[in-house]
Amino acid sequence: MKSLLKLTLLGCLVAFLPVSAKAIIFDTETAFEDNFVQTHGATGIDWNSAGYINIPNGTKSVLYSVGGSDLYHDADFYLEPVSVTFSFGAATAPSLSIYARVDPETDIGIAGYVTLAAANKFEFRLYNSANPTTSGVSSQLLGSTITLPEGVTIGAWDILTLTLGSNPEDAQTIVMTLSRGNDLLGTYERTLTTPITSPGAVGFRTNTATSMRMYEFSVIPEPSVPLLLLGASALAVAIRARRRLGM
After folding, report:
1. 147-183: per-residue pLDDT in tens?
2. DSSP 246
3. Which of 210, 99, 104, 114 is CA-nearest to residue 162?
4. Helices (H) then strands (E): counts for the chain
5. Which fold has domain 21-242?
6. Residues with Cβ within 8 Å of residue 105, at least 6 apart in sequence
7. Which residue among 64, 148, 167, 188 is least crowded, i.e. fewest CB within 10 A of its CB?
8. 8 phi and psi, to 5 degrees?
9. In this structure, what are the phi and psi dihedrals at residue 212, rounded to the nearest 5 degrees?
10. What is the pTM of this model?
């Protein structure tokens, strides 16, 4: 009986684990074309055997799409947080945005944006009405400029990670972070002026005068309702078993 109880408790814990992140690592030639569709901008994104995709200069928008054909495949499933690991070819002026909650009917969602203003300074911006089919990013909310501590700079080809998520207590409050390895370089939090209550497609937008590299794109879906119900059921079984054993 105790063995059964242990298995039940283990099952309960597993049921409550969050859904695993979907991480696209660009270490194979087809990783980009199998998982993404470019929705705007000149072509030219190509794979490098060193383990990244090379994105040439200009403005380009891309959406995550399993199979590389349906722009909004399972769009109602994917939610924040989303993260992109990348490097810029220049230390100033380039920008990267993460799209999220893009409605498949209107093509409108949000975009969390970071641009390098100088080697020791970068800026976060949040756009409330972004369109990946045109790369348009109207309705900019107030941003935040981050000045790095003295002696800390961001150089060309430094590998950075931009993450866009939401406050656990308020899904309309968007949180962005920029990090380099284990070092958090800055964070920004802003509440949407026009709430978006439905999930949607995710992707990214680049705008650079020189090329940039992207190494990984990750999205962490919310736990499904059936998974939560399974966890609740397992917990109830575990509690009843503990009571029968007098534990």
Report:
1. 999 999 999 999 999 999 988 888 889 999 999 999 9
2. T
3. 114
4. 2, 15
5. Jelly Rolls (2.60.120)
6. none
7. 167
8. -65, -45
9. -140, 165
10. 0.79
Instruction: Compute, in degrees rounded to 10, the torsion defined by CA atoms 64, 65, 71, 73.
Output: -120
Quick: pLDDT tens for 110-153. Answer: 999 999 999 999 999 999 889 999 988 877 787 899 999 999 99
How many CA atoms lie within 13 Å of 76's alpha carbon, on the beta-carbon side? Answer: 2
Alpha-carbon gap, residue 199 to 19, rounded angstroms:
16
User: Where do runs of H (alpha helix) occur along 141-197?
Assistant: none
Between CA 157 and CA 116 the distance in angstroms is 12
Mean pLDDT of 210-235: 61
Helix (H, G, I), strand (E, B) or coil at 33: coil
Cα–Cα nearest to 227, from 7, 6, 4, 20: 20
CB atoms within 10 A of CB 51: 14
Q: How far, in Å, CA of 28 to CA of 218, rounded?
A: 16
Distance CA 85, CA 208 (A): 16
Q: Where are the domains of the chain?
A: 21-242
